[in-house]
Design a protein that fits this description.
Elements (H helix, E strand, L loop, with lengths): L7 H5 L9 E4 L4 H16 L7 E5 L3 E2 L2 E2 L11 H12 L9 E7 L2 E8 L8 E3 L7 E7 L2 E4 L2 H9 L21 H10 L13 H8 L2 E4 L2 E4 L1 H6 L13 E6 L7 E7 L3 H15 L2 E5 L6 E5 L3 H14 L9 E5 L3 E6 L27 H8 L9 H11 L6 E4 L6 E6 L2 H17 L3 H14 L4 H13 L3 H11 L9 H13 L3 H10 L6 H13 L3 H10 L1 H4 L3 H17 L3 H21 L3 H17 L4 H14 L4 H16 L1
């Protein structure tokens, strides 16, 4: 029966265990036996608090990668090998009982030795099999080396120091452990311990996972057990939870929502990450001169995941009653854990391109379980991954900080600039709608100070200031940025000021602005520009834009109606009768298509009205013209222009 707690295939391919924690041995011989004994000693010393490692006998490796299919141990006496390992582990001082698992992998017999971090380090092993002299051994990267000099001094200082998460908890009975949580965890990591046909008593499961430890005549749980395999870890470790607070302003005074996530650590993490991911709005921006679009999010999921997992992994659960805190502001996300980094890690280590030094971790079993679940990454990869994912998303660089006394550690993920803009526009729109107009403008101006190149924010400020009676300030803002080619969505301030001038019936001035406006990238903005040209009576320019973008607008009723109206207006100023008829016929086709596509009663009514007038210009049958007027009146019976046009047309018919 397979009793290895983790999935064997994941182990061999280093999917759930870091490669530096795995040592491969092609076969078994006396020289290999000596190196195995040294590696057992090194893994037991667990110098970096990674919770030991695994020695796999029967598989060769090349540069740390397994060579498959396995070589296997055919022709070897597995019972004798296991007996030798157990017997010689007694020569390690203090004695260390390694766990040995005979396994079949790809039809070959292999041995897996699981060496978890020992409770009574430092350990020493015989230098040679025939010598009584002992030495201390540690892991340096993927190698086992003899501990000397400063490494040996540091190892001596770790004497009998067991990380808090791996300590036994004498105050709690194993009866509090939830067998369901344990079995679900093993199922998640695809462990053979819970495979169909494997019926293993609960206590044996706990022992195989090393989440309990014997004390005299009974077993007690380890602290990590109470963090992962009980329903409410806070009963034993106050503060073992995640709190997420969303604020409506930068100062944190306007609290919008607060959520608390409790339960086993891995459950908390998954639920909190799902919750945060809902806030990470996806923004789509078309790439100029390409058919593709660039997608960005407010906060990259991978960066949030890495920062939050690191907070849960590396915080302390010993006497710290503060939870992991996540503060969500309009312009940033902060993740705070307590206390700060362990000694040996300084602020300079968080600079770009600088590696975090390989100092011993605060928790070793928490990290092991999170890696089994594929929630945590390999050692030293977290900070670079956060930076990389923020850069790939087009977000500003993350910020890492802690205080001099190391009471906290904070990761700040600045929001993508486009998200800050969207959030500010939404918030200001609400403020404007409820009558708080000055606050709406101040909110936009505050956001503009953080994203000073946002054409969307500038355009909205121009619109709101004009509506508040301060067109001079709006126009000045436009003139200040008019020649700045680095403004994002640069067309938006132009269209905003052009709309205002058109509303003031300053058609010539609006036309000048529109001529200077950069061509938008988004189709919706391009259509808006065409509509403004139409309002400015620049029908040729409007028609050209609609025609160039017809493939993108052919299923949008509003755009089709605007395009039809542009053709109708062009027909009125065109002297060539053939061209007039062509434009009107094309307008009819567009209006009929808009009516078919639209479920908006008001839009359809006006489309029928435009259609009636265009049919009249084409001198079609009176029945068809009157029917179009009737449809318009049926949809909007209170619109006087429909009734007047219908009755006028009917009188002409009667008089004729």
């Amino acid at each position: 029966m397979n009793t290895l707690p983790i999935n064997l295939d994941d182990l061999i391919h280093a999917r759930s265990v870091e490669s530096v924690k795995i040592e491969f041995k092609k076969t078994w011989s006396q020289p290999i036996a000596e190196s195995v004994l040294h590696s057992i000693c090194a893994f037991a010393n667990d110098f970096f608090n990674l919770n030991g490692g695994y020695i796999i006998i029967g598989i060769e490796d090349k540069n740390g990668q397994p060579i498959l299919p396995p070589h296997g141990l055919e022709g070897q006496n597995l019972d004798e090998i296991q007996k030798w390992i157990r017997g010689n582990c007694k020569r390690i001082y203090p004695e260390y009982p390694a766990a040995i698992f005979p396994e079949i992998y790809q039809d070959k017999q292999i041995l897996v030795i699981w060496v978890s971090g020992g409770d009574v380090r430092p350990y020493q092993a015989p230098k040679t099999l025939n010598s009584g002299e002992r030495s201390y051994y540690v892991r340096q990267g993927s190698e086992t080396v003899e501990a000397k000099g400063e490494i040996l001094n540091q190892l001596m200082q770790m004497a009998a120091k067991v990380p808090f998460d791996d300590r036994r908890n004498l105050a709690v009975s194993i009866d509090v452990i939830s067998p369901t949580l344990v079995r679900n965890f093993l199922s998640d990591i695809k462990s053979e311990l819970v495979a169909p046909g494997n019926v293993i008593p609960e206590l044996d499961l706990y022992r195989n996972m090393r989440i309990t430890t014997p004390i005299n005549s009974h077993e007690v749980p380890k602290n990590v057990t109470l963090l992962f395999f009980v329903d409410d870890p806070e009963q034993y470790f106050p503060g073992a939870r995640i709190e997420i607070v969303q604020f409506g302003d930068d100062a944190g005074g306007n609290l919008i929502e607060e959520k608390i996530f409790r339960g086993p650590l891995h459950h908390q993490l998954r639920q909190a990450l799902d919750y945060l991911n809902n806030f990470s709005t996806t923004m789509v921006r078309k790439v100029p001169n390409q058919s593709t679009a660039h997608r960005t999010v407010a906060f990259p999921y991978e960066a949030m995941e890495e920062a939050l997992v690191n907070a849960v992994y590396h915080r302390s659960y010993e006497g710290i009653q503060e939870p992991v805190k996540v503060y969500l502001y309009p312009d940033r996300l902060e993740i705070i854990s307590y206390p700060g980094p362990v000694p040996g890690i300084e602020m300079r280590h968080f600079q770009p391109g600088v590696m975090i030094p390989p100092v011993p971790y605060r928790n070793r079993r928490i990290g092991e379980f999170l890696k089994d679940l594929h929630l945590a990454e390999a050692r030293g990869t977290g900070i670079p991954k956060i930076r990389r994912k923020m850069t790939e998303n087009g977000s500003p660089d993350p910020i890492f900080d802690f205080d001099e006394t190391r009471t906290y550690f904070r990761v700040t993920l600045p929001a993508h600039p486009q998200y800050i803009v969207i959030h500010a526009l939404r918030e200001s729109s609400h403020l404007w709608a409820v009558g708080e107009r000055q606050r709406a403008i101040l909110n936009l101006e505050s956001s503009l100070s953080r994203v000073p190149k946002s054409g969307a924010l500038i355009a909205q400020i121009i619109e709101y200031k004009t509506s508040s009676g301060d067109f001079i300030a709006a126009e000045k803002l436009f003139r200040d940025i008019e020649s700045d080619l680095t403004i994002m969505d640069r067309h938006l301030p132009y269209t905003a000021i052009a709309k205002i001038l058109l509303d003031q019936r300053k058609f010539n001035e609006a036309s000048v602005i529109l001529e200077q406006a950069p061509l938008p990238i988004q189709v919706s903005d391009t259509v808006e520009l065409a509509i403004l040209y139409k309002r400015a009576k620049r029908f040729q320019e409007s028609h050209r834009i609609f025609a160039d973008n017809y493939e993108f607008i052919k299923d949008d009723p509003k755009s089709l109606q605007e395009y039809a109206q542009t053709k109708i207006n062009l027909s009125k100023i065109n002297r060539d009768m053939h061209t007039k008829r062509r434009l009107n016929r094309e307008a009819v086709e567009l209006l009929r298509r808009a009516i078919q596509l639209s479920d908006d009663k008001v839009r359809n009514a006006w489309c029928w009205f435009d259609l009636a007038k265009t049919l009249n210009s084409l001198r079609t049958s009176e029945t068809e013209i009157l029917q179009a007027y009737s449809k318009a009146m049926e949809l909007l019976p209170d619109e006087p222009r429909f009734r007047e046009s219908y009755e006028s047309r009917k009188r002409k018919k009667d008089d004729g």
